[in-house]
Amino acid sequence: MPDEKAESDVLAVLELLAKQAPMEWYEALTEEARQQGLSAQEMNRLERAKRLGLVVHTQVQRHQRRESGLSALVDTARELSHPQDLHTVLRAITRRSRLLLGLDMSWISFPDDDPRYSLVRSSDGHISALNVGLRLPYGEGIGGDVMSSPAPFWTADYLADQRIRHSPAIDQVVRTEGLRAMMGVPLSQTQPPFGVLYVADRNVRHFTADEISLMASLGQLAGAAIGKAESAQRTTEQVTELQERVAHTEAALQGNQELGDSHIRLVDLALNGGELHTLVSEASKELGGMVRVYAPNGTTLASCGDTVEAMETALEAATLDAHAAREPVPLAHGGCAAPISAGAEVLGTLFLYTGRPVSERDRQALRRVTQAIAVLLLLDKSRTAAVEGQVRDEFLDDLLTRSQRPIAQLERRARRLNVELNTPHVVVVARPEGEAQGKAAIWASSYAQRMNGLKSRHQGCVVLLLPGTDAGEAARAVGEELSPLLGHPVTVGAAGPVTGPRAVYEGHREAQRCLDALTALGATGGTASARELGFLGVLLSDHHDVEGFITTTIGPVLDHDAQHYTELTHTLEAYFETGGSPTYAAKRLHVHPNTVARRIERISSLLGPQWTQPDRALDIHLALRLTRIRRGLRGGPGASRADHTPGP
User: Fold this and answer.
1) Which residues of the chain have pLDDT under 50?
2) Which residue in 356, 491, 586, 611 has the fewest CB atoms around it within 10 Å?
3) What pairs with residue 527 in β-bridges?
């Protein structure tokens, strides 16, 4: 009989594992067995089973934490893959890194122009001085170890750790913020790192090996995203620089009408869709010699005139000399080589052979010709991007039509355009309330590109399909950005999340109905989704999400009743049924008025102080009625307590 009891207790350990019970339940099991008088041998077996159970319990919890961390890391990678400016990327990295491990603060520092300091470029969770723009001594603190290793460096208690090269300036900031545990990881995909990502907590904390590995992976992802954003920023600066150079050149040409007219003609030819061969032919006439344009890899892009063998042999050396000098350089057998560039980006090289020494006027003309060719080459890149944008617009137009193409075909097109329709998206419909539809369409193209979404125009409205799950937040973001730019109110309706090609059509219909509802309610210039329109949103929605409406409206009250066995829901019902009178509600509930008053205070803390306002009260009253109907349909009058369960 004792053996059977010990075997039963061992099985109880397995049952605790299956239930994922807390660790204290294992101790309670052995204590109960000890009190029941098990022998020493039986207790040893049970203790061994308990120890093995705790080992398995710990390993399961560790695997769950690792899975959760990897899932968050994938979400972070997805967010950082969207085209964004550098400032937005840095903000996203600091926010995500702080939330990844549930810590209090995060920040990013880059080396400053002054080599003695590092500069804080972004921070999240700060309460005092550790903010953007703060300069700290370079090479000290944990950042010095991270940059010199480069590898993650962490400490459970920064100020008490003697391994760290402490700096009075950094220590003072740490004290002001109240930081204890801290970790720094390098920001780079290659060596050496170009910055450090820090996370910190205001309590003593020992980081696990999994947490350190997770942060190191985030540092590599962040390094790639920052490099991508910096590259895009450099491209923008190059185009700006080229525009400034063209403007400066045009101003300088006012003193030389002949060269100026030629330059303007060539630039106009480039801007009006002219081909490179045509532009080179015009340049050959203008310069009076053979002209050939080479790509950076040496491929001939266009040529006009007879080939000169001597010039071919000097191609590589002359290309290097021209781009190093950033101006035309003479060739040994007559003629010259001129660089074609936009900022630091090399676009190609122009070779001119005239059979005579190149004059100063020839060099001036060459500079203007290469600028016109640079404009044309950059525009060719832009036209490629524009064609892709048109294809993306047409794809969204197909998704918004009732008679859609086969689902497999839509999914293939989505993959070619790098649009993940199997992940949650929201549909936003924005209607400018003024003569600004053209400007709105231009803005929508830029916004959709930034958010890695799609845009279209439909019945005078801008339609956006954007990655995300919060339709109301997406509508507010569109309204807040677009309305100031247009100088007119913008009414915005949204729906979602939707998943899959078929769901986009229904999501667009629901968003359009929200837009129409805002107009009918006299809320022109407002933003809303079906969920935010309360009971009206339930009627507008294709899915009639009654459960979601109840959860959003009175979910905290239902949850409180289910968790604490209180009567707040019944009190709310009595309150409304008696015309909002706590006294009459107390009589109906057969309790003292002070009891009702305390319950009303608790309800206010759960629903917010504005819950008695007419619009909120209407939604709450309707949610209570729907709850009562659902309660009756599910279990009859006796189900009143059972229905008080937390919302989904």
Assistant:
1) 1-2, 252-253, 255-260, 270, 382-387, 540-543, 633-648
2) 356
3) 492
Give me the pLDDT at residue 638, please. Answer: 39
pLDDT of residue 648: 26
Q: How far apart are CA 339 and CA 346, in angstroms?
A: 8
Token pair, residue 216, equals 């190191």
Residue in this structure with the two tokens 């210039």, named with its chain if needed: 525
Angle between helices 257-271 and 209-252 (to 10 degrees): 140
Q: What is the pLDDT of residues 474-495, one digit of tens each?
A: 889 988 888 887 788 889 989 8
Q: Which two tokens stand for residue 4?
A: 């059977």
Measured CA angle at 185 (ends 181, 191), to 5 deg: 160
Cα–Cα nearest to 323, from 308, 303, 302, 344:
344
Q: Are 348 and 340 in contact (CB under 8 A)?
A: yes
Residue with tokens 């549930």: 102
pLDDT computed for residue 158 by the predictor: 92
Output the pLDDT for position 641: 37
φ/ψ (deg, to 5) at 395: -65, -45
Q: How far apart are CA 181 and CA 271, in angstroms?
A: 58
pLDDT attached to residue 542: 47
- The single-letter DSSP state of residue 255 is G
Give me the helix-helix angle, 407-416 and 501-520, nearest 10°: 90
Backbone angles phi, psi at 272, to 5 degrees: -95, 20
- Give CA–CA dist 310/331, Å, rounded: 9
Q: By CB neighbour count within 10 A (0-12 exposed, 13-18 middle, 19+ buried), where does 251 fall? A: exposed
**Sheet strand arrangement including 153-155:** 135-137, 117-124, 105-111, 196-201, 181-186, 153-155
Answer yes or no: are the C-beta atoms of 573 and 588 closer than 8 Å.
Answer: no
Q: Which DSSP state fits 211?
A: H
Residue ranges with strand state E in 439-577: 454-458, 461-467, 490-498, 527-529
CA atoms within 13 A of residue 408's CA, in its CB half-sphere: 0
What kind and span of H or E run contains 184?
A: strand 181-186
pLDDT at 556: 86
List, for residues 277-303, the tens digit of each pLDDT value. Answer: 777 787 777 777 788 888 776 677 778
- Chain centre distance of CA 583: 52
Beta strands 290-294; 345-353: pairing state = antiparallel
Query: What is the token pair recorded at 587?
Result: 């009589």
117 is written with which tokens?
Answer: 């300091």
Residue 340: the pLDDT is: 82
The token duo for 540 is 């507008």
Edge-first strand order for the sheet with 527-529 is 454-458, 461-467, 425-432, 490-498, 527-529
d(CA 322, CA 327): 6
Spatial CB neighbours of 51, under 8 Å, sequence gap ≥ 6? none
The phi, psi pair for 153, rounded to 5°, reads -135, 135
Distance (Å, rounded) from C-alpha 574 to C-alpha 326? 84
Parallel/antiparallel/unpaired status of strands 105-111 and 196-201: antiparallel
At residue 156, the pLDDT reads 92
Q: Is 483 helix (H, G, I), strand (E, B) or coil?
A: helix
